[in-house]
Amino acid sequence: DKSTGYVYVIFYDRRNYKDETTDVFLAVSTDGGQTFTNEKINEKPFKPNSFLFLGDYLNISAVNGIVRPVWVSSEGFTTMVWTAIIGEAVKNELKTSE
Q1: What is the pLDDT of residue 38?
Q2: Are 50 and 35 in contact (CB under 8 A)?
Q3: Which of 10, 28, 50, 66 has its CA 20 to 30 A from that of 41?
Q4: Which helix (H) or strand (E) holds 78?
Q5: Are strands 59-63 and 66-75 parallel, antiparallel or unpaired?
Q6: Which helix (H) or strand (E) holds 70?
Q7: What's the chain's Rg over C-alpha atoms?
Q8: Are 43 and 57 in contact (CB under 8 A)?
Q9: Which positions ≥6 away from 32 have C-beta within 8 Å?
Q10: Taken in order 77, 81, 36, 86, is the CA torsion positive or negative?
Q11: Rounded distance, CA 85 to CA 42, Å?
């Protein structure tokens, strides 16, 4: 994010499981990449189908502290595209509109 200097990375991870069950994580660095914190951003874990390649279908945009990750998950032979809007500004805007 050019406006904050923060570095964001989105990735698939199986750290919480002993099989192919997969989550999606967002890593954030506020010190130029020296250290990162990780947060799981998918609502439901999934098991990728070995016939589908999902690794190239990740993307992320970060502007003014608002982060928009995009990822793909699968159920059987069905792929689904997911996104989220993450950031303090979004949280504050939602609070003031209630």
Answers
A1: 94
A2: no
A3: 50
A4: strand 78-83
A5: antiparallel
A6: strand 66-75
A7: 15
A8: no
A9: 5, 7
A10: negative
A11: 12
Query: By the 8 A CB rule, do 60 and 7 touch?
Result: no
Query: HSE on the CB side for 42, CA within 13 Å?
Result: 23
Q: What is the mean pLDDT of residues 7-15?
A: 95
Asked whether the beta carbons of 30 and 6 are under 8 A apart, the reply is yes
Classify 66 as helix, strand or coil: strand
**Residue 76: which of 56, 54, 55, 46 has the closest Cα?**
46
Closest CA to 86 of 31, 32, 41: 41
| 39 DSSP β-pair partners | 26
Whole-number pLDDT of residue 91: 46
The DSSP line for 10-63 is EEEE-TT-SSS-BEEEEEEESSTTS--EEEE--SS-B---TTS--TT--EEEEE
